[in-house]
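Sequence only, no structure available. Ideas?
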Amino acid sequence: MSYEAVMARKNEIMKKAVGIDYQVFESGSIAFDYERMMKEVGYTIDEIRKIQAETGVGNTPLIELKNLTKLARKLAPAGKGARIFVKDEACNPSGSFKDRRASVSVYRAQKLGFKGVIAATSGNYGAAVASQAAMRGLNCIVVQEVFDSEGRGQPEILEKGRKCEAFGAEVIQLSVGPELFYTFLCLLEETGYFNASLYTPFGIAGVETLGYEVAEQVRAATGRDPDAVVITHAGGGNVTGTARGLLKAGCKNTKIIGASVDLTGLHMASDRDFNRKSFTTGHTGFGVPFATWPDRADVPRNAARSLRYLDRYVTVSQGEVFYMTEALAQLEGMERGPAGNTSLAAAFAIAQEMDEDQVIVVQETEYTGAGKLPSAQLTFAREMGIEVRRGDPADDKPGERIVIPEHPAQIRVKEVNLDALKKSYISNCIKHYKVQKLTGEDIKFLAEDTKTSEDYVRMVVKELGISI
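Reply:
I predicted one. Tokens follow.
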């Protein structure tokens, strides 16, 4: 079947493959009933805990990083340097927080009688779905975007493919380009398997237990709520699920901080750029595109909506993340993979802004393996013609130069303008839905979806020249 014919039927295929009729939540305009969708399709915290306990997911340890806290205090002004904790999500069965998302999706697939599950992902989520499917006796197919046009694949993505195969999944590896979604849709139709999408209410509800556990464990360890939680930000599900869990645990004043790797100038879908980055958690590939247009996902309405929850969004450089990966191993004895170390690098810098009696939490770690190690990533970067050297990470230039800090004082965060992202999101909604006039329901929805006010939305809409 032609590409155009399959894409024209994508909503029909998705509806059958996830068992959700999204139309019942729609208003016919921009607005949809997000909270009703999460309530009616998702599960309660207690239900999710029970589902996750069946396959050994969750209840991961919260560890205080005492040596990194001590180092941060040496670099901070007097009285500054918050206590840094990390939620060790590498202790989940497949080695990352993605087990929480996969556990609920695969449980749902089994409950609905599907014979197998399919996930389109080049990240840890594929391994998580494969692991959960193995435990529940379902077939699993993982579709990965792996190679550039010359057949070269990044060590980290190849590593993740091997992990999926180890859990018994069939792994279909593709070159970068639009064929990923087309292949994914064709497979859903051919097999009749469940779409274990990252972006359904099941997946996001699965992450809520992470935020809930962070609240419980920080209170038990310190007698207070976390002052800030730093969350690696890619497609928005990690931020959304964790923040919702913290809110359900009553953490009303905890700051939600997203962190991505600065990949300015590089594009995930570009054949040239695909292998010129060392991380998939970049702000240009996922963080910004999914924040400003979440419904670009493989479901009609994305349950991952990070702008609803973010208080602050920062980036760090590739060199800074490599530095913190080694610091975590050599100062705390924890060898973990790169994604969680993105938020660790940001937390190390932000802790130095905060008071000593405050608490900052890095809410995930991930497993590591041969292809994820800094040595493998940096060797591949050199093979791609990228300069790797020591110096000030301010000189880092994605795709051309990776600069490893010479001193921990050189680790900093770069602010992402959240206000600009919110305006871009509102503009994208109006453009995508071809709206000439907004309803009161649209205004209310956009205010909630951007964590602003109806007056703010009216101001932005007026700037865009749209009637209310």
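The longest helix spans residues 201-222.
Hope that gets you unstuck.
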